[in-house]
Amino acid sequence: MSERGRTIAGGLLFAPLAAVPLVVTSGRWIEFLELTLFTAVLGQGWNVLGGYGGQYSFGHALFFGTAAYIQALLQFKLGWSPWLTMWFAILGAMLVAAGVGYLSFRYGLRGSYFALITLAFAEAFHVLSRSFIGLTEGGRGVQLALNQDPAQAFATFQFNFAGPFLSTYGFYYTILVFLSIAYAAVWWMQRTRFGAQLVAVRENEDAAEALGVDAFRVKLGAILLSAAITALAGIYHVQKFLFIDPGIAYGPAKSVEALFAPIIGGLGTVLGAFFIHGIGETTKEIIGTFWQERPGLDLILFGVILVLVLGFAPRGIAGLLGEAWRRATDRACN
Amino acid sequence: MPPTGRATDVLEVTGLCKTFGGLRAVADATLSVAAGEIVSLIGPNGAGKTTLFAMVSGFLKPDAGTVQFQRRDIKGLRPHAACRLGLARTFQVARPFPNLSVHHNIAIGAHTRYRRRNQALAIAAEVAERLGMASRLDDHAGSLTVAGRKRLELARALATRPRLLLLDEVMAGLNATEIDDIVAALRGIRATGITIVLIEHVMRAVKSLSDRAYVLNHGRMIATGTPAEITRNPDVIEAYLGHGAAARLADGQIDA
Ligand SMILES: Nc1ncnc2c1ncn2[C@@H]1O[C@H](COP(=O)(O)OP(=O)(O)O)[C@@H](O)[C@H]1O
Ligand SMILES: [Mg+2]
């Protein structure tokens, strides 16, 4: 499938996703879908820079965590509305992205060097968020007050006590809207000169430069957009769990999650996210059934399955489906 | 057609030097190209031709010397900026965007002058048509043959609407028919007012195309003149490995 084809295929998933509450009433399934869409937002953020731009970041927690901390702290310390803080969260993530992007791209760090510098920055912020206790509350984390007044549900961007429908589906729709925004942004990007130039830089940076593409500016633009999308995941996370600490914000888990979804799914990140959580839940279930509680065992099984998937479908699930589609249509033509 | 004075000079290179480690790849190279000329840059492998192009187009920083494009100092300009001024280069080893179609490859060049996507795609289709690639528009660039890739290099560069084209061995690896096609295409390009400097080993093409030629050997410019003058120059014959080369030159073929 072409990149545009994948975006369209991804877009077609939105209608059924929006209709989910008509069918799915089990809280557990909603949680599963929410988690999946959350991963898809992270993945789509990473995808702008990694998938389209070919700059593989291992530290996207940097943008997730910065947005989450800003979202939490401005409410916690200054009592700002979450609807206001979210703009600062996005801006903050973009500011950090501008810094990292400037340093990396100005000095021509590519490939594994770029991956390492993003990883290093995320780790640095991890440590800093622990040690600047006055600013971040340190390792204790930031706990936001739970709003129990249904009338304040929207004002506080908290759906826990917002009536039977919203308390179940409020955050599901939040993350679905965020994912739609992410998809719309990528869809727009693909039809602009910026998007075309970004892909050209991924394909061959020198050739792109020779053809008038300012690779530095294009990559900087990509990391900014990437960070802005990733920030949405951070905002959602804080509003949903009302808590953030250094490990959740800047630990490696989010960085890995962000890059796994697009790599497993191919560029259709929604598929990858479904797959990751599908496997994750299944392995937990299997292990729960056969070995009871064995923390860590599910991760090993998860890893094995990931390796198998990548071994058999190096271009991701979308690549696999595209291949099957091509074969089916070839046969039809013959 | 000798240069007719500074007013019409498109490219003016003086005293250009580049050293890699201890190796002097280009030493004190000087070259000037007037508007509308086709100038060949020839010389044995490793003479420093590609390095000279890389310095002129902003990919390498010269150790010394000056580069003026349309009487403007462009030394130190990054490649994309040089391209926007109207100086486009191709690569000796073609560098297509392999996962993009031929159409989208060329459109990247067209975007240098056109922001809108459909405009760039229209220009790209036009350029492909002119270079006889129209039937290949939807092919993946990665699936092209050597000849196809060379042509794509040329098409992309042309789509940037350059004033000056620096072509690095666009005929290497092509058969006689393909070379004739490219020679015809280059004549057509020159007819539209674009100045061309080409690095070339195919002497037949050099002779039939170029107004003048420069010969680079061990980084030094050892001769300049019309193709006929160059091929008679003893220094040049010497540079191409003595008698064997002289004999091949007499045949009008050099495959250094
Ligand atoms: N990036 C580089 N680093 C080190 N040496 C180089 C580099 N580029 C070219 N050279 C050397 O400089 C010399 C000139 O190379 P080049 O300009 O490619 O020659 P030509 O294009 O005339 O065949 C060669 O000896 C080559 O090995
Ligand atoms: Mg060369």
Key phrases:
heterodimer; A: 334 residues; mainly alpha; ABC transporter involved in vitamin B12 uptake, BtuC; two-stranded antiparallel ribbon; 17 helices; 80% helix; B: 256 residues; alpha/beta; Rossmann fold; four-stranded antiparallel sheet; 10 strands; 24% strand; globular; binds adenosine-5'-diphosphate; binds magnesium ion
Query: Beta-strand level of the residues of chain B, as a percent range?
Result: 15-25%
Helical segment tally of chain A? 17
Multimeric state: heterodimer
**Termini separation of chain B (Å)?**
27 Å
**Fold-level CATH name of chain B:** Rossmann fold
Can you list the strand order of the major beta sheet of chain A? 1-2
Please identify, by name, the CATH architecture of chain A. Answer: Orthogonal Bundle
**First CA to last CA of chain A: what distance?**
20 Å
User: Which segments of chain A are poorly predicted (pLDDT under 50) over 5 or more consecutive residues?
Assistant: none
User: Pair with the most extensive interface?
Assistant: A-B, 19 and 32 residues
Give the tally of structural domains of chain B: 1
What percentage of residues of chain B falls in helices of 4 or more residues?
Answer: 25-40%
On the 0-100 scale, what is the average pLDDT of chain A? 86
| Cα radius of gyration of chain A in angstroms | 20 Å
Task: Give helix % range of chain A.
Answer: over 70%
Pick out the low-confidence regions of chain B: 1-7
Number of strands of chain A: 2
Number of strands of chain B: 10
- Mean pLDDT, all residues of chain B: 90
Second-tier CATH architecture of chain B: 3-Layer(aba) Sandwich
Q: Predict the CATH topology of chain A.
A: ABC transporter involved in vitamin B12 uptake, BtuC
